[in-house]
Amino acid sequence: MSMRWCSSTQTKNLERWTLSWRTASKVLRNALLRTGFTWHFSKQSFLLSILMAHRLLVRRFWTLSSKDLRCLPVSSSFSTSLQSSRVPVLSRSRSRSLALASLRQAASFNIQDHDDFDVRVIKSELPVLVDFHAQWCGPCKILGPRLEKAVAKQNGKVTMAKVDIDDHTDLAIEYGVSAVPTVIAIRGGDVIDHFVGIKDDDELESFVSKIIGK
Amino acid sequence: MPPIENDTGKNDLKSQIQLLIDSNQVMVFSKSYCPYCVKVKDLFKELKLEFNAMELDLIEDGTNYQDMLLEMTGQKSVPNVFINKTHVGGCDNTLQAHKDGSLQQLLCAETEAYDYDLIVIGGGSGGLACSKEAAALGKKAMVLDYVVPTPKGTTWGLGGTCVNVGCIPKKLMHQTAMLGTAIQDARKFGWEIDEKGEASEQQRPRRSRRGDIGPVCRVKHNWDTMKDAVSNYIGSLNWGYRVALRDKNVNYVNAYAEFIEPHKVKATNKRGKETFYTAEKFIIATGERPRYLGIPGDKEFCITSDDLFSLPHCPGKTLVIGASYVALECGGFLAGLGLDVTVMVRSILLRGFDQEMANRAGEHMEEHGVKFLRKYVPIKVEELEAGSPGRLKVTAKSTESDEVIEGEYNTVLIAVGRDACTDKIGLDKTGVKVNPKTGKVPVSDEEQTNVPHIYAVGDILEGKWELTPVAIQAGRLLARRLYGGGKLKCDYINVPTTVFTPLEYGCCGLSEDRAIELYGQENLEVFHSLFWPLEFTVPNRDNNKCYAKIICNKLDNDRVIGFHYLGPNAGEVTQGFGTAMKCGATKEQLDNTIGIHPTCAEIFTTLEVTKSSGGEITASGC
């Protein structure tokens, strides 16, 4: 029973993938039906559907609050790939070393609440990997550090948001998480890819590379 | 009852009547013999409408009701019909309203106005099962669930008692204890265990069955490891329940629900934010919480089963107060972890269970080092030293004399029973009747309370089993009857269950005590036997401690009306015999069943000695 909610070893992944695939697709179908989409069950359309569903979901939760004006992660302002004018904030007079330290720190962060998610994930200029994890999930404890390492290797081209599903149940429920670990990739507020269960370093690296479009 | 003269009485009666009108979609004030009333009631039955009929000739103060109705509606005659709080009138008015469609209008008006078809209060086994089934049948369902923290501050997730602070952690910790026994046994089977390690301080040498202290097997148990593993598993279950609700389209809100009107609840979340929801029907499934003693120091210093399973430290030397199954199970597994455990018993063990079996289970615990303080009740608990765990002093007095005793423990666990959570959910606003002594809710055989649109399932039901599978079955069947055209009612007879004492006790049907009360000793035949499980023989423990007993009704073909088993894997053994009893198994059929050898359960296919014969029941070979 527990394993259903907690994807573990790779060897048994096939069975679990099927299971989580089924659950995930069911959730999506429900979400889509609610928003008036028809459902065609195929893997090809899955990605498209997930995109559309989440765009809709995201729009629904897109609210402008005073918190939106809060500064973005410091790292952004020094990221070479970033051209945004919306990222100012850090005084140029501060030393570069401090900024670099922050850069490393900000590559992955814990989501504090729904607004925080909005600012640091949905409105992020960079692609973000969202790691839905739980305290009680063994495989999450293996995947988390691996993913963190893979993200750090990209030198600020991608960030990683960690969401504890028990602290932020609504977020997990909203994004259709059924089993943990679930990792979704978000760019420009849209879900562009996802996986459930554990992956090794190489697989993670190629997943991350794909996200940043290498 | 005399006519009411004073105003207070009149106002009381008026509000009683108003409550009936407000809380019933269709309310009929009627007289049982009146043909017009029958006609109206038949109409509602035909329309498959739920209605509440109050037969004024069958209640004591019927005339007062009639007088008050005259005052309220200008109509004295019966039937006096109300639909959705609107006064319709008598028989002719109602039939006319049915003809011209205004009756339907009245009925629809209200139904569409509710936020939900069904609101379930309580996210335990019964509530979840019922809400999911209702949603699967196309209804808009909501679950409101909130765990009020214990005095110690313990709280938990979705799923109710069984998942968080009951069956699940209990059995996992029982399993932990049994593994301890298995390690002891393993040596006799040839496993060589490194004995260089140190036993932890809080653990004492185990006593052998003769009471002498045997060689200590120096294996240590780590409370934190067990507690974390159990908590993690429960965490995954909580999440699983949450996902299941989402997948089944049940709206879940983590908030404390309280009725403020018969069809409206106030839900308060942990930040104190209040939201209001209305529903056509409600199911109360709020369950029970442990009872405290009401003595100085109980809430400050003692814990209950609500705290034990997630206790951040090993409880150490423990006093268990009470002899409920919760008390014996917790005391049992704590002793099995190697802790010093004392159980304080006011009168008998396992009230309501077969007393012979209860005492045998208790004796086995005693032989394995659990101390029993019989016929004492605690009068105060004081803290000698704070800590994890600290030191507590318990003062108790004898139930038979003036003797007062004192004892020092690290942890005091209260397990003296549980109270239904029905007193703080605004039931007075709905008119739902609650037993004032026990807080339990009496329901019909269809789990309906006295207020027709409010139902109840689970542990809060009066005179029903407090068991998870019973609540699940009742909840599921209730939803099917309400929304799926189902007819099946929950069968509360011959429910199998198991108490996970160190030597497990499984039973189904009547206890011997109750069977004698119901049928008389002369009409019963009791077959019984001691047995020695094969797996106990090599380690040479617990010889002739396990016991099997069936109670047969001589007046009914020796049908088995009580099944009792004390031995390993009692749950697994009892489950199948539960089915047999549902099928009406007789002694002859058990005799004609081929046993599986070598097992414990096979004893039931070869029971020969009757209790009345006084024959020898100690086991002997194959």
Summarize, please.
By secondary structure, chain A is an alpha/beta fold. Chain A contains 9 helices and 5 strands; from the N terminus they run αααααβαβαβαββα.
Question: What topology emerges from the helices and strands here?
Answer:
The complex is a heterodimer of chains A (214) and B (622).
Chain A: H1 2-5, H2 13-34, H3 43-61, H4 75-78, H5 96-106, E1 108-110, H6 114-122, E2 128-133, H7 138-152, E3 159-164, H8 169-174, E4 182-187, E5 190-196, H9 201-212
Helix pairs in contact in A: 2-3, 7-9
Chain B: H1 7-23, E1 26-30, H2 35-46, E2 52-55, H3 62-73, E3 80-83, E4 86-89, H4 91-100, H5 102-111, E5 116-121, H6 125-136, E6 141-144, H7 160-165, H8 167-188, H9 223-247, E7 251-253, E8 255-261, E9 264-269, E10 274-284, E11 288-290, H10 298-301, E12 303-304, H11 305-308, E13 318-321, H12 325-336, E14 341-345, H13 355-367, E15 371-374, E16 376-385, E17 391-398, E18 404-409, E19 411-414, E20 418-420, E21 454-456, H14 468-483, E22 497-499, E23 505-509, H15 512-519, E24 524-531, H16 534-537, E25 546-553, E26 559-566, H17 570-582, H18 587-591
Parallel strand pairs in B: 1-2, 5-6, 5-10, 6-7, 10-21, 12-19, 13-14, 13-19, 14-15
Antiparallel strand pairs in B: 1-3, 3-4, 8-9, 9-10, 11-20, 16-17, 17-18, 22-23, 23-26, 24-25, 25-26
Helix pairs in contact in B: 1-3, 6-14, 8-9, 8-12
